[in-house]
Amino acid sequence: MLELRGLDKSFPGVHALSDVSLRFAAGEIHGLVGENGAGKSTLMRLVTGLMEPDRGEVWFAGRRVRFRNTRESMAEGIQLVQQEIQVIPESTVAENLMLDKLVTRGWGVLDWPAIHAQARKHLEVVGLSVPPETIAKALSAAQKRLLQIAKALAARTRLLLLDEPTSCLGPHETAGLHTLLRELKAQGIALIYVTHKLEEVFALCDRVSVLRDGHHVGTHPVAGLDHDRLVRLMVGREVRDDRVGLRPVSGAPEMLRVEGLTRRGRAHDISFTLRAGEILGCYGLVGSGRTETARLLIGDDRADAGRVWVRGKPVALRSVTERVRRWRLGYVSEDRKEEGLLLGFSVLANLTLTVWERLVNRWTRRIDPASERALGRHWVDALGIQCGSLENPVRNLSGGNQQKICLAKWLAADCAILIIDEPTVGVDLGAKEQIHRVIRDLAAREGKAILLISSDMPEMIQLAHRILVFRDRRIVGEVVGEGTSCRSAAEISEAIGHFLN
Amino acid sequence: METPALTARTASALSVTAPRGEWFSGRTNGLILSFTVLFCLLAVWSPTFLSGYTMFVLARQVAFYALIALAQALCLVVGGMNLSVGAIGSMATVLLGLGLDTWGLSPWLAVPMTLGFGLASGWLNGVLIARLKLDSFIVTLSMMFLYMGLRSGISGGQSYRVPDSFTWAGQSEFVGVPLVFLVAVVVLAVMAWIFHQTVFGRYLLATGGNATAARLSGVPTGRMVVWANVLSGGFASLAAVLWASQLGAAAPETGDTWLIVSFAVAIIGGTGLSGGVISAFGLLMGAAIFLLIKHGLVEVKANPYFANAFLGLLILLTVVVDRAREMYVERVRERDPRSRSRAGERIPEGYQAP
Questions:
Q1: Contact, A332 vs A406, CB < 8 A?
Q2: Running DSSP on this structure, what letter comes out for residue B106?
Q3: Secondary structure letter of residue A262 according to DSSP
Q4: Any chain A CB within 8 A of the CB of B161?
Q5: Is B133 on the interface with A (CB under 8 A)?
Q6: Per-residue confidence at B350, pLDDT binned at 50, 70, 90?
Q7: What CATH topology corresponds to B27-37+48-335?
Q8: Cβ B214–A386 below 8 Å, yes or no?
Q9: Domains in chain A, ordered, with CATH?
Q10: Strands of the A215-221 sheet, one edge to the other
């Protein structure tokens, strides 16, 4: 269906794709994997006409094609479902779906009954059972994703490219999406499936192609492949991390106790305890109450009811400032760009922001530059942050290094309790490994009490000592290790799945 | 991940054009250059330009512009704006006139009362913006009309007389330099120090840099917004007091031109419109450049009725040039997604926290 011959694309200073030749067949789900910067996005852009290759040819359905924009590739039946959910929140489902093909009665007057009827038909294809008049922002993340796919399929589609379509879906919804994709495959559509979640490759794809540093390092039938081998192909070296973290931590002092914490509409009746040196996982989907609970704990949102103790002392739920200074509670946000970093500010300022007040000379009220730099230097070295100079704006850093800075500012503030929200979203495998090691060390060596929020199941299984399962703004279950024996990863995910359904 | 060697090299190369200090950044050089060119042009064009008297008058005017722009920049730096700078100035002038003329108060009472009003009106703006989470645009717009109306109603458009002793501050000099200019320079220097060296200043910058991230990092962002507005009101009223002293009368129309001046000077001086960036030296330079252009228009006998059109164009030109530079930098970065710390990187200017 689609054939790439010797595709080459360079940007100033970067050879993004070098001599990549690939074939994608109709009626096949073809996985495309690789670390961040391996060239997956560039490849997708070249196929859909968002960019043109420096060298090489794109052949589609037996013909050489040269798309100059997505309009041209769409006309040929190539549809891209982007990673970000793109819906117009204030418009209806039908309007979102039919925006580029609105039916009129002539003179530009819209024929709403016809539009809704067609929209209903397209929604049926993806099994999305909502009325077309629904306002799009009322949909769940999974429903929005389905809406996007419905939109892509509403045209005559022969090739469907999906860029991390399950990044915001839960296990149940992911399974549903996969069923849909298999049906599309049976209809003879070619699918290219880009993902970071390797378990999805094994669950869904027929063949998988691996990109590394812009090179095509191989295409393999999934049947003859195992997880470790695939990772080795992607990273180019051995990475083994199948540890299971689940085991009880006992004897250590209790750092945080939460009882009946409630904020109507956000989190209900949240109760748990957290010990020093313990990593307590909070598993659940976006909107299940995990992040909302974190916001209550750091005092960014006011609770309607409930009590919180830090190191046995009752805590009044007040401002974030007090929470940081007095109770040494740090929060690493899930959205480091919007909520974690001052992007235009230097590495140093971002690292020491939380401790400026402690670096002040008592008489002159001046922040001591020498101790500030020393502190910044210390944490850059301690976490291996690659930033060049401390004056470099954090905007210039890679995702992994930015994430380390988000962590380091709380370590600099000497926080004893850390709430870490989705620490490895959008960082590549190498950095993910490092961040996992840092989190593990913080608990094991430094005795930090860590509340780890994540919807990445393998991450949760590897790191957490206990796992709280969130659904519908409540804690619906807790998964603990039995005695001192570690349970297997499969058992743990089964247990979590049991609570979720 | 970047290669550390590359990053280190580019970073040190960049720091030649933008040393960590606050006084000279890439943008600052541009300001100094523009100022020098304008200054030389005027000196050649006009035989009276270099005279002591012209210099004295211009320096005094620069001081007012810089103070007014500082009042605006303080709100811009926390990510807001203050449309009521001029209205606060006018209202403060009327209050000063009322105190000195109508009520016959001593300047020692009337001046603190006026400054107090400035601080209080700024506080009110700040509280409405930060506590009720209202938009700074709509809050300060309403306040602008409120004070404009009050000052017209109270004064009836008439200027108030001030005692001769009161004109001392605005009219005296110190070794040939107007006292007002010295006041402005000291104020700017102190603000520069605060922004660069103190927690308070850094918190103001962080609030404008990314309010959510700052709040979640324990920065009391709400309080910072209130403080920025309090200071803004304070400096607006300080400028009003000095203006009345210089003029020898409390004229109710004092602040009418301040709004546009404050934005123009702040923008030319490199204050970030989206917050987080301010340069005290830039404000002083911006004020000087703005004034030289205005003065130049008089010298070349441009039709004064068109003067505002030139100034409007000047502001537009400044933001267009700034934006063009930003877009150029973004394009360079986009074309080059992996090594993002390469040439053309936008360097935070001015008093960005080091």
A1: yes
A2: -
A3: E
A4: no
A5: no
A6: very low
A7: ABC transporter involved in vitamin B12 uptake, BtuC (1.10.3470)
A8: no
A9: 2-87+139-235 (3.40.50.300), 254-328+415-500 (3.40.50.300)
A10: A78-81, A159-163, A190-194, A29-33, A207-212, A215-221
DSSP conformation letters of B26-51 = HHHHHHHHHHHHHHHHHHHH-TTTTS
Give the largest Cα separation in chain B, rounded.
72
Q: Which two tokens stand for residue A315?
A: 């805590």
* More confident: B322 or B285: B285
pLDDT of residue B333: 60
Tokens 């979203």 -> residue? A425
CA-CA distance, A2 to A157, in Å (whole number)?
13
Q: Which of A324, A340, A428 sits opposite B213 (nearest CB)?
A: A340
B54 touches chain A (CB under 8 A): no
Q: Does B12 touch chain A (CB under 8 A)?
A: yes
In this complex, do B338 and A13 lie within 8 Å of one another by their Cβ atoms?
yes
Residue A100 is predicted with a pLDDT of: 78
Residue A63 Ramachandran class (φ > 0 left, ψ -120 to 50 alpha, else beta): beta
Predicted ipTM beyond 0.85? no
Distance from CA of B200 to the nearest CA of A (A): 9
Show contacts of B339-343: CB within 8 Å, 24+ apart: B339/A13, B339/A14, B339/B2, B339/B3, B339/B6, B340/A395, B340/A396, B340/B2, B341/A388, B341/A392, B341/A396, B341/B2, B341/B6, B341/B7, B341/B10, B341/B11, B342/A12, B342/A13, B342/B10, B343/B10
Q: How many CB pairs under 8 A join A and B?
A: 149
CA distance linking residue A374 with residue A394, whole number of Å: 18
User: CB B197 to CB A367 under 8 A?
Assistant: yes
- Residues with Cβ within 8 Å of residue B278, at least 6 apart in sequence: B73, B74, B76, B77, B195, B205, B271, B272, B350, B351
Region at B347 (left for phi over 0; alpha for psi -120 to 50; beta for the rest): beta
Residue B52: Cβ within 10 Å count: 8
Q: In chain B, where are the structural domains located? A: 27-37+48-335
User: What b/e string do you get for A398-424 counting C-beta neighbours within 10 Å, with b at 16 or more?
Assistant: bbbbbbbbbbbbbbbbebbbbbbbbbb
Residues B330, A29 contacting (CB under 8 angstroms):
no
**Angle formed at CA A96 by CA A94 and CA A100, multiple of 5 degrees:** 100
CB contact under 8 A, B2 and A298: no
Give whole-number Cα distances, A72 to A52, A64, A415, in Å.
Answer: 13, 13, 54
Closest chain A residue by Cα to residue B1: A398
Chain A residues inside the 8 Å CB shell of B344: none
Specify the pTM. 0.78
Going by pLDDT thresholds of 50, 70 and 90, the confidence category of residue A242 is low
Closest to A243 in 3D by CA, of A486, A48, A49, A426: A486
Contact of B239 with B184, CB cutoff 8 Å: no
B273 touches chain A (CB under 8 A): no
* B99 DSSP assignment: I
Average pLDDT in chain A:
85
- Give residue for tokens 């850390």: A418
Interface test mutation site (partner B, options A35, A40, A212, A345, max chain B beta carbons within 10 A):
A345
Measured between CA atoms, the residue of chain A closest to residue B217 is A354
User: Which residues, in sequence order, are CB contacts of B249 under 8 Å at separation 6+?
Assistant: B97, B159, B160, B161, B162
Query: Longest Cα pair distance anywhere in chain A, in angstroms?
Result: 78
Q: Mutate which of A51, A212, A321, A421 to test chain B, going by most B C-beta atoms within 10 A?
A: A321
Q: Average of pLDDT values for A157-174?
A: 82
